Amino acid sequence: MHVREVTSAETAELRRQVLRGGRPVALPGDADPAFHVGVYDDGTLLGTGNVRLDPAPWAPDAPAWRLRGMATDPSARSRGVGTLVLAALMEHARTQGGGLLWCNARTPAQRFYERAGLMTRGEPWEDPEIGPHVVMWTTL
Q1: What is the DSSP string of 10-62?
Q2: What residues contact residue 137 under an 8 Å CB cut-off, 6+ apart?
Q3: For the residues 3-29, what does the mean pLDDT come to?
Q4: Which residues are within 8 A (CB) of 33 and not within 5 positions of it... i.e. 6 or more apart?
Q5: What pLDDT, on a 0 to 100 scale, did the predictor assign at position 61?
Q6: What confidence tens digit (pLDDT) does each residue in 34-89 have?
Q7: Fewer CB near the last or first residue (10 Å), C or N of the chain?
């Protein structure tokens, strides 16, 4: 498996299937500048995610990166794909000045993010389209 920078268009179908249950993937901020990575194996995209400069709601003046669009093909889960994606995104944010890294994590992925050093903030909430989430964060 290898990780490389990609465009959001290269990841749209995977994100649509994994994150949106086949619905469109366009989200507020998707057109904003972001750093996207993909994990490939034999030319097949197995996982993706992106980071962008975006202040954390609780610290609007602190430098911060928002993690978004983390998706792993179901057939590739438990193979380290998400770990490779997250590590590449965290390294990019660190080399670009660091600060906070935060996301709205789906609660089923909470332990994955905790293993990477992120902590929860606040209480979980329900997104009516895609389920329960919790804010998670770390300092880079």
Answers
A1: HHHHHHHHHHHTTS----TTTTS--EEEEEEETTEEEEEEEEEE--BTTBTTS
A2: 56, 100, 101, 102, 103, 118, 119, 121
A3: 81
A4: 52, 53
A5: 96
A6: 999 999 999 999 999 999 999 999 999 999 999 999 999 999 999 999 999 999 99
A7: N
pTM: 0.91
Domains assigned to the chain: 2-139 (3.40.630.30)
> What span, in angstroms and rounded, lies between the C-alpha atoms of 50 and 33?
10
How confident is the model at residue 24, as a pLDDT?
Answer: 67
Alpha-carbon span 91 to 109, nearest angstrom: 20
- Picking from 58, 63, 66, the residue whose alpha carbon sits closest to that of residue 101 is 66
Where residue 19 falls among pLDDT bands split at 50, 70, 90? confident
Region class of 58: left (phi > 0), else alpha (psi between -120 and 50), else beta: alpha
